[in-house]
Amino acid sequence: MPVLDRQNDVFVLDLGGGENRVDRDWVTAVDAALEEVEEAEGPRALVTTGRGRFYSNGLDLDRLSAHEEERHEFTVRVHGLFARLLCLPVITVAAVQGHAFGAGAIFSLAHDFRVMRADRGYWCLPEAGMGMPFPRGMAALVQARLAPRIAREAMLTSRRYGGAEAEAAHIADRAVAEDAVRGTALEIAAAHAAKAGDALGTTKARMFPGVLAALRDVGTAQG
Amino acid sequence: MPVLDRQNDVFVLDLGGGENRVDRDWVTAVDAALEEVEEAEGPRALVTTGRGRFYSNGLDLDRLSAHEEERHEFTVRVHGLFARLLCLPVITVAAVQGHAFGAGAIFSLAHDFRVMRADRGYWCLPEAGMGMPFPRGMAALVQARLAPRIAREAMLTSRRYGGAEAEAAHIADRAVAEDAVRGTALEIAAAHAAKAGDALGTTKARMFPGVLAALRDVGTAQG
Amino acid sequence: MPVLDRQNDVFVLDLGGGENRVDRDWVTAVDAALEEVEEAEGPRALVTTGRGRFYSNGLDLDRLSAHEEERHEFTVRVHGLFARLLCLPVITVAAVQGHAFGAGAIFSLAHDFRVMRADRGYWCLPEAGMGMPFPRGMAALVQARLAPRIAREAMLTSRRYGGAEAEAAHIADRAVAEDAVRGTALEIAAAHAAKAGDALGTTKARMFPGVLAALRDVGTAQG
Fold it and tell me: How confident is the prediction for chain A on average, in pLDDT?
């Protein structure tokens, strides 16, 4: 389960050492961690990272299809989590040390910056290859972060981007050696910790009004 | 006139061997072809291409100005055609073997991918140079496909992009030798034929809600 | 104070030889100059430039905080000026010969093209570093001009871009030697003077409906 730690001005959220699936317990834990970061005061920033092969392998589709009655509530909560992260009032950096797939990949995009491992691990939106449509809010979030041609390629072809490819496509800001992923993310976060505060959260919310509306409308008729 | 053919999983729409002007008969024929592709089942994709010097030379302005009474109905139909193509539930590839101008260039942008001939032929939006404003839906479509600086340059300066320049600007995904244009487009299409289906169409519609609304509003007071 | 001059088909707006702060008198003078360019007829284009170390050093925050009662009216006028420039019916080129900070940097983005001095001078949005949120309309304008990753970096980290860096990030279209800034801008402007006219203004307004709405809503409850 995700665990929040603090190293000087940088909160580090360990997403787990397994597949780190975006399921109910994981969402609850990450949401609580984001709330703690939000409510802290003074200079601070956030790095999220996993341990081992996966950053996050996305939704637990088997469980979702076995529990149809939870699906709506869960979908609302996932979208709410991504909205909260997108406009968190601190600089956020995803240290993508392993695979990031589907909702895990989109979760990484909700951060301000992404650092990937260069030599192994894929960033991928497998939905098109699995015959699944993107929810509106998730589509809007992907498109708000990536250049039009990259959003199109990633969303329509389910291309798997290795670290260097993700850097070239500006999906990742940096692709570095395995042992430098976390350190690079910490450096970026620490460099901008002094910018934390309500003004930063307000600016982020004003940059992405359409994305936030789409993420928050998922529970309504418009979603 | 446009003619639809099928090669294994790939539909090939031949746009014609002349200037392939976007006029009433051409729009009717292309629209019928898109409907046939939509209604087919199973793995499939679409390649459009012309023969000879032109992919499509755009609107027939002489005819339009001679038949003012048709203009509104025609404008609605062209916008509807572009909206249908933009969210067609199969992967679409424009094999731009010759000039693509004005509405012909925008038609190519409504495809998911574009392959251009590298050594001859221009992609160009001549409207600004001719003193014509872009309709809202067409402006939105161009901007949804291109990086901000490229949309700005293409729309405001009427620059003519050769194939290599179009590739560098990411207007085209690939610029290749004349005899490889069609084959490259067929390869891309075939590689993604298995992704055809309602989910893909839904994702495309969710990626471009604003563009689709602007294209479909052309017949109303808002347009 | 800003002074408008004309060299053949190109209007040159001299923004001043000091810090060229975006204050009441400066806004009044620039607005009057834009109106004169709008109302002129025939082929024409606009170049804006400063003299000395600054293109424009942005808002005069000391004065604003000393005159709270003027702030709302002034904010409306600045946003209106940027909206007017964004859809001016002539091609506009910012010859950024010195520093462009904050509102001065955003003012440069409201032009169709930007030429920067390569070796000295920074383009920077210092708001995040000063704990100030961006107004909605200003955020929308920055995002309409820059690639998503550049808008994010510029707005959230307050990075100072030198000319060559700004060119690489496509904030500037060209970075050239000091003595070539003005001449390069004049060349670009003159090359497109023939495109001036209502159609060009209409196209610009149709390209940026959301930005214009956000800029113009600043005086209302929605802003």
Answer: 95
Q: What is the mean pLDDT of residues C109-125?
A: 97
A148–B147 C-beta distance less than 8 A: yes
Asked if the C-beta of A209 comes within 8 angstroms of chain B's C-beta atoms, the answer is no
Would an 8 Å CB–CB cutoff place B146 in contact with chain A? Answer: yes
Which residue in the set A145, A198, A203 is minimally distant from C134, CB to CB? Answer: A203
Q: Is B84 helix (H, G, I), strand (E, B) or coil?
A: helix
pLDDT by residue (tens digit) across B142-153? Answer: 999 999 999 999
| C186 burial type by CB count under 10 A (0-12 exposed, 13-18 middle, 19+ buried) | buried
**Selected residue of B88, B90, B206, B211 to mutate for chain A interface (largest A Cβ count, 10 A):** B206
Res. A195 pLDDT band, cuts 50 70 90: very high
Residue B58 has pLDDT above 90, yes or no: yes
d(CA C110, CA C121) in angstroms, rounded, equals 19
The residue in chain B having the minimum alpha-carbon distance to the alpha carbon of residue C171 is B149
Alpha helices in chain A (DSSP H): 24-39, 61-66, 68-86, 103-109, 127-130, 136-145, 148-157, 163-168, 181-191, 198-207, 209-216
Q: Is B207 on the interface with A (CB under 8 A)?
A: yes
Distance CA A164, CA A174 (A): 8
Contacts of C207 in chain B (CB under 8 A): 134, 139, 143, 151-152, 155
How many other C-beta atoms are found inside a 10 Å radius of the C-beta of residue A115?
31
Residues 6+ apart with CB under 8 A from C177: C117, C118, C119
Spatial distance between the Cα atoms of C48 and C138, rounded to a whole number of angstroms: 19
Q: Which residue of chain B comes nearest to A146, CA vs CA?
A: B147
**A133 and B203: CB-CB below 8 Å?**
yes
Q: Indicate yes or no: CB of B206 within 8 angstroms of CB of A139.
A: yes
Tell me which chain B residue has its CA closest to the CA of residue C205.
Answer: B136
Mean pLDDT of all residues in B179-199: 98
Q: Tell me whether 0.90 is exceeded by the ipTM.
A: yes
Give me the helices (H) in B47-179, please. 61-66, 68-86, 103-109, 127-130, 136-145, 148-157, 163-168
Give the C-alpha separation, C12 to C95, whole Å.
10
**pLDDT at C71 (0 to 100):** 87
CA distance C175 to C184: 10
Token pair recorded at residue B159: 């620059």
- Say which CATH superfamily domain C3-219 falls into: 2-enoyl-CoA Hydratase; Chain A, domain 1 (3.90.226.10)
Contact pairs from chain A to chain C, CB under 8 Å: 56
The pLDDT tens digits for A56-97 are 999 987 777 777 778 889 999 999 999 999 999 999 999 999
